[in-house]
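A reminder before we start the practical. When you read a complex entry, don't treat the lines as separate problems. The point of joint prediction is that each chain is placed relative to the others, so the output describes one connected object in space. Small molecules and nucleic acid strands, if listed, are placed in the same frame. In the example below there are three entries. Take a minute to note the order of the lines before looking further.
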Amino acid sequence: MAQKSNFRIIINRLRQNKRAWFAMWIIVALAFFALLADFISPYHYDEQNRTKSYHPPTAIHFVDAEGRFHLRPFVYNYSLVDPVFKRYEPDTKKIYPIYFFVKGDGRLRLFGTDEPSRLFLLGSDLHGRDLFTRLLYGGRISLSISLLGVFVSFILGLLMGGIAGYFGGKIDNILMRLGEVIMAVPGIYLLLALRAIFPVTLSSAQVYLLIILIMSFIGWAGLARVIRGMVLSIKEYDFVTAAKAIGSGHMRVIVRHILPNTLSYTIIAMTLSVPGYIIGEAALSFLSLGIQEPYPSWGNMLSAAQSIRVLTNAPWILIPGIFISITIICFNLLGDGLRDAFDPKATGGVEIK
Amino acid sequence: MRGFKWVITLLLLSGVLIGISCTQKKDEKKTVVQDSEPKYGGSLVIDVISDPKSFNPVIAKETSTTAVTGYIFEGLTQMNPFTTEIEPHLAKSWEFSKDGKTWIFYLRDDVKWSDGKPFTADDVVFTFNQLYYNKTIPADARDILTIEGKEIKVEKVDNLTVRFILPKPFAPLLFSMGFDILPMHVLEPVVKAGKFNSHWGVNTPPEQIVGTGPFLLSEYVPSQRVILKKNPDYWKKDKKINRLPYLDSIVMLIVPDQNSSLLKFQAGETDMLSMRREDYVVLKPQEAKGNFTIYNAGPTLSTTFLIFNQNPKKIQEHKWKWFTNQRFRQAIAHAIDKETMINNVMFGFAFSQDAAMTPTAKFFHNPNVRKYEYSLEKAKKILLEAGFNYKSGILHDKDGNPVEFTILTNAENNERVNIGNIIRADLQKLGMKVNLQPIQFNTLVTRLDSTSDWEGVIIGLTGGIEPHNGKNVWYSSGQLHMWYPKQQKPATAWEAEIDKLFDEGASELDSEKRKKLYLKWQEIVAEQAPVIYTVTPAALYSVRNNVGGIKQTSLAGVIPYIEEIYKK
Amino acid sequence: MTNYILRRLFHMIPLLLGVTVLSFAIMKLAPGDFLTQMALNPQIAPETIELIRRQFGLDQPWYVQYWKWLIGILQFDFGYSFTYRVPVSALILERVGNTLILSIGAAFISWAAALPLGVYSALYQNTRFDRIASFFSFTTISVPSFFLSLLGIFIAAKTGWFPTGGAVSANYSSLDMFGKLFDRLHHLILPVLVLGFIGTGSLVRQMRSNFLEVMRQPYATTARAKGLPEHIVIWKHIFPNAVNPLITLLGFEIASLLSGAALTEIVFSWPGLGRLILEAVMSYDLYLVMGSLFMGTILLIMGNLISDILLAFMDPRIKLG
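Here is the predicted structure of the whole assembly.
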């Protein structure tokens, strides 16, 4: 139940931490790009260009083959000259100007060129699909899956930890032992084994939800432990006793009076646990057990890079890995900054997994 | 079936093993490698994907195991890797009675087990009667050696002669005589004690594994390497009557996947590599510097295809009507963009597959079956003729149901997922709503095998040289008759005809007449398109130039006979 | 102390039971089993598969299977691996050494890098050095291990400086003693570097904050006030107290590497426990999964226990009891 002024103080402190502030804006920008993928991406994420497989990033020109300067940037159309080595050669006789705010696929897009030329900002994949487009749509899935995963597991963790700490006794014992069991199994194996339980034909939306649920099932335990500890001490405070005295129900006391006092810890811990979920999704999809084709996620895009042929001849396929790393760095920086902002005296670390 | 079986695990996790064998069609100039005189000594270093799981060839199910035992044990016959004909091996000759029911095999008299004991008819009788026909031993061979539910009677005539009495004439018998023969004097006590199934596990001391093959087990370090050393008493000799093999040893490095195989070869740690298509781009520019040669050995036995569920009552009735409609399947066959699959998925190294037997099978391959060229217009035309119609761009059937279905494939196999992606995109252009769903291999198999709740599936099988071994797939009551398995009686006239062709084919001893039966079968399959074929990959090999005895074969990759390989 | 250890060990029992029940239930809930993969082989009859299923006891209800497994565990019989057809215990023993070498090597690297980095970051707080070190630690925390391993392999393939995977070379058995040692080390470098790199960041950050905290303590001020030279204050008084809390991490680290190293082991084809479990999970090798998770859990709990005991030794203020 942080007051408004408190909130402003925290924002101000965060703003003074330039790194965290910057990281926050990168996250916002990434989320913004992912949200507006329909507008920013020049193509549909599933548009196959069968004669443009593993096409390198398209060069953008201002000066044409005859040396004339064009104010409007343009690209050439490339044709495949060697299907084995995927070598492409431009046809410099015709230029394809880049237009902004074009209509394509029945909707407005930020930029585009005329058919049959393609503008691949970051190259294309095996099916000749635009990597830039897929990166944006993939970000949509990877970011939302990890944010939702964190959200669900924290609701679970808060409730479990709250209930365990508040009631104590048998409930506490059962919940905490359950948590310990889950934490005792190394995460990646639990993730894989749990994924294997649900292979019934699932629609993509169901797979998406499933990944969130599995990660939450694994993730709640750690938080519940800490929250329980905090609740144990908070429940002794006067305002809790007072709330109980005026006859508030148990759940109401937990949710309305006790848990809000763990808010600052929760916010920090949530921010710092996003990376774990991003890696979780990426690892599952990397091992082909997560988000499935034709839908892109950063993890399944990276799984194409497992082949040496791709690594050496189409290194742009690695770009999703760089995006995963950047996103995680930003969340770690932001979480770190938030911790300092909430408690400027504390310098100790919350363990990052 | 002895000889060098070069096998790769297409995908370790899926457990789908694909034996690469090759016919030699293109790159004629490369076939004859001018070799220097063979020389003794040296070792050949190759890689094998994943650990051998045992050294017991009878119960072995994995290629990582048979890749090792293939050197140690031998069969009565073996297949000529160039012609795919059956030739003598531990048996030097054979004859059969007019009715085709009695076969007599004469064994070589110069074969010794690696512990010094002579190889005799007792070993053959023991191997068949007490191992392959032993109900407590899970031997794959038993299923192939069982003719309409009856066993072959195997008897000793004298020390070097064995008689096989068949319940009825069985044309593929010679092919089946390639199964490994094991030593009776070592294994009989083990079988009697009921311990055969766990015998010769990976922790067995190497000298206890007794075989007749050109190489013997010398060392096994889990997850790292298997070392085989030369069998000094091997019976086979070269043209100059020098005892084979030439090599002192074979070192098999155990790698987890094909990326590691590639890296090991690039690092100069191995002498030979069974390449993936995608590796060509990496290796071709290094050919001269790395002192190796790349061989393209033509199409493999591996197939990838699309099937639709024709099992009644397991899927919605209107969908079942589409899938059992020959015209519908033919339309879809016209929507398979094989050229894109070859260029983009297979990196140019694949062949369009039209007939049920791939060209590798040589003798039984039918090159004249109906071919479906890629043409969405043709597909559309066929669909319209068959009563389908378009409503605002979406394909509907006669009864007004929109055409919508799910295609499953196994997620672990990237090539299949990519092929599925291309098919899905094309079918969508035909106005169908297609959902491609890569799922785990185990689940996929459960659905195909027992629950039958699927609509379309993209999957692959490794074909063979002997069509009869595919009976399980093509016979209407077959377990692997995937579009409608285990039928009580044939559901359609054409399936009944295929059943008949397979029955006749098994007992027809005249090979030309037999061939005609199987060519007919391939025509029916192409016409009915229950199985819609895509592409079959090419077998590519990289071999260091200091390895001698390399020849391109139909079946055994570039190593026709391992005992004739030598180091220059 | 003995009392405390005994009590902790006693507490392990329900936890271990819970872990085994959980993992058994998960394995059993998944559709199909190890033998399902064989069903698609045209040359294996269903009867053969049934025969194998009976031999492995897979045709019995799950609680019977679990009970048999549990009884076996009490007699130190971990069962047989379906894929390898050898006792699970032999497989685990074989692999656990490799994983330990990797973990210890990685821990050594990250500690050796993290301690000085942490101390100097604290000493030169808010300088450029601190900021760079801090950014470095954020990077190491943030890069996914499989991505870094892929990059490592890529470098190995491009430069040829390092072997591209595995634990030893092909000609290992023919090398002499020193050759063998060198060969092993050579194969160890890249995976250890990758894992060590990943582990460095959080240690640097902990070390830095611990150090800052201790620097503010009265006894540090007192030491300075007494006129002791700065380096003595730093290394004799502050450093030991700042390292103490980190010792608790040692135990955790070994255990968490078990999980974290799995993907690295896969990419580097390192014959360790992580890869073994991962493959076992994927191929439904029931008893191998059970056995290795059981061992993994024991490692984790022992790690925690060792941490606590170490801490008690280092810090007299903490009493175990």
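Discuss with your neighbour: Residues 2-35+133-342 of chain A form a domain with the MetI-like fold fold (CATH 1.10.3720.10). What might explain this?
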